[in-house]
Structures are given as C-alpha cells and as structure tokens.
Amino acid sequence: MSPCAQPLAPFAALFAQANFNQSPLARSHWQGRELLLVQTTHMQAVVSVQGAQLLHFQPSGERPWLWCSTLWPEKGAIRGGVPVCWPWFGPHASDKSLPAHGWARISQWQLLDVLLEGEALLLNWQLRCADYQAQLQMRLGQTFSLKLITQNLGGQALPLSQALHAYWQVSFIDNACETSLADARYHDKLDGEHKQQLGTVRFNQPLDRVYFAEKTLCLHDSVWRRQLLIDKHGSDSSVLWHPGRQGLADAPPVLAAGFVCAEVADGLAEPCVLQPGERKELIMTAHSAPLVLE
Ligand SMILES: O=P(O)(O)OC[C@H]1O[C@@H](O)[C@H](O)[C@@H](O)[C@@H]1O
User: Fold this and answer.
1) pLDDT tens for each residue of 13-70
2) What is the pLDDT of residues 70-79, one digit of tens each?
3) Nearest CA-CA partner of 172 in 9, 6, 291
C-alpha cells in the first residue's frame, strides 16, 4: 500500500508558471528561497540556491527520485532533496552552538557556470567558508551525480567530515529496504553500540546508523518495483536514517512515511584532515532500475 501523500504539487505548480524561454533553466521563488527550475527532454529538477541543494529530480517517464518536505522553516535548513552536510557532519566536534551538519545547507552558494554536456546539464556551485572552499558539480541527465570538492586554501590543517544526505522518495517506508549492506559493520547512533548488519535493512523503525562500507547502496521499493542504486567515491561510510513513524515537525508522519535517507559520507570512519592546499572529492551517482520480484 502507498498511503502517503507525495509532496510534489508545489514544484509542479512552479513549473506550470515558469517561463523557460527556450532555455533549460528558469528562476523561481518559493517560501522565501531562490530556486532554479531545470527542464530538458530527459528530466525535471529543482535546485535551491540556499545549500546548492538538489530538491527534486525526475527523469522523463519515471516517478520522482527525491523527497522534499513542503514545510520549510522561515530560516534554516530545507528538509529534503540532497542537503550537503559540510564541513562537518552532525554536531560540531567542539562547539555545540554551531549549526548541526555545518554551514553548507544554510548558506547561499554561488552558481559559477552552467554547461550542456551531451544530454546532461552541468551546474557548478561554489562556497567559501573561512579557509574551506567547496565546489559542488551537479550533473543532471537521465541520472544525476553530485561531486563535492573541498580544498584547504589556508595555511593550517583543517578537519573535515561531510555527507550528501539524500532523502529518497519511496511509496511507503514499510515497502522499502536497503539490500547491499548485509554483513557490514555499523555504529548504531540510537544506542551507541557497534554491530553487524544481518540481512537487508528495513525502515519500519527509527534508524540512525553509520555503516562502514564502501559499497554501492541499493534501495528497493517493492510496490513501485523500483531500485535506486547509489554509487559512491571518496566515501568511507554510508548513513541510513529515518525518524520513525512519529515523524518530525517539518515532516509529519504522513509525509515522513514517504522517504528514507541513504547518505554518502566521509570522515566518519576515521577522522579526516586536509593539509594546506589539499583537495578531497566526495561523489554520489544515482541511477534507477526496475525491481523484478521473484
Ligand atoms: O534534522 P537534521 O539536522 O537534518 O538531521 C537529521 C539526521 O541526519 C542524519 O544524517 C544523522 O545521522 C541524524 O543523527 C540526524 O538526526
């Protein structure tokens, strides 16, 4: 069954009102945020300038891949799409007054350039934060990839932990599972224990786990008969997270039942330090495939 209302109507309304004027890009605003609407013969996407956050991605003829809340805070992080957690993941290591998951998702990024590469559109974003510089290269075609490049522009070593914190849309949490992490070791953040995964991971309970695995993630939706395959590079860990049936203030239960988070992370298995001048890349590439049930 698929009882949850899918929250895409606002984006559909924005596309209906937008003036693309022969371009694949149109500017739009919603809930106080500046948005880029992207439309080609192969896909539709929405990107927020705050966070350089891909909020919506839908290849032609397919269901949307990403989930996004319709309840955005007046200020602060938008829950949905692919928030960039950077240059730290979770609470800051020493100063708990700093924002969870770093500055990237609450900052305005600069769009450096837009290029057409074959059938795909490349959007190249940049953010400078003290001596950290991030570039996010977004490739939007029949599939999408996100390449986050961090460079230390200063003279001191800098700690780095990061994640591409994707909210994947599912028909209903009980219909979803992750199948590639069987046997992987993980840190269960809900009880602080280190454990080993037995079989597939189901999302029918609150979940907050850091898996120490470099494998491609594989999300199955048994009702939509869809697999989402998430390849990663430069990533020492994957985070699976869901708040459970009680949902969250900006994702009440009926909406929270429509996503699972499968995140590509780095600097969580081992502390990562960038030396002066050093660069590091974190890449997520997603594609879909039909799910054939036996
Ligand atoms: O509510 P936020 O700040 O977006 O974070 C959501 C979740 O993000 C996950 O990545 C973390 O592992 C969780 O601990 C956290 O609760």
Assistant:
1) 999 999 999 999 999 999 999 999 999 999 999 999 999 999 999 999 999 999 999 9
2) 999 999 999 9
3) 6
Residues lining ligand 1, CB < 6 A?
Answer: 77, 90, 100-101, 165, 189, 208, 239, 241, 263
Exposed e or buried b per residue across 87-104, where buried means at least 16 C-beta atoms within 10 angstroms of its C-beta: bbbbebeeeeeeeebbbb
Q: Is residue 38 part of a domain?
A: no
Residues 6+ apart with CB under 8 A from 34: 27, 28, 48, 49, 50
CA-proximal residue: ligand 1, atom 3 (nearest): 100
* Residues 261/242, Cβ–Cβ less than 8 Å: yes
43 found inside a domain: no
Q: What is the span of the domain harbouring residue 269?
A: 85-290
Residue 70 to residue 7: CA distance in whole angstroms? 6
- C-beta separation of 24 from 141 below 8 A: no
Cβ atoms of residues 211 and 181 within 8 Å: yes
Count of domains forming the chain? 1
User: What CATH number is attached to the domain comprising 106?
Assistant: 2.70.98.10
Task: For residue 176, tell me if it sits in a domain.
Answer: yes
- Would you say the pTM of this structure is higher than 0.90? yes
Residue 265 CA to its chain's centroid (Å): 10
More confident call, 293 vs 61: 61
For 61, how many CA atoms within 13 A lie in the half-sphere containing its CB?
7
Q: Residue 228 domain-assigned?
A: yes
DSSP 8-state class, residue 289: E
Mutating to test ligand 1, I would choose from 241, 264, 266 the residue with most ligand atoms within 8 A of its C-beta, which is 241
